[in-house]
Design goal:
Shape: flat
Distance between the termini: 10 Å
Number of strands: 2
Largest sheet: 2 strands, parallel
Helix content: 40-55%
Mean pLDDT: 92
Length: about 100
Amino acid sequence: MRLLIVRHALAANPEAYAAKGHHDSERPLTRAGRKKMILAMRGLRKVAPQLDHIITSPYTRAAQTAGIVAKALGLPAPETSELLTPERHPREFLNWLE
């Protein structure tokens, strides 16, 4: 199995977003973040192994990033996993992978 980990693209400022009363899990990508991720995917398509699945955190910015990756690679919509939230220990996701 090959595992490719992608960090979410540039998202809205956390402090400004929280000041508006929103939870961090809802913080979206910025327009610049979307554009940069689309550009990055052009290069990733050339060097990344073929992927079978995309799994994302339910956080808005992560799901939006995963959607960009899926579209660029011609894959189905990403699967969402609560195991990829900051509250969970990484070992839980690794156990799930096994």
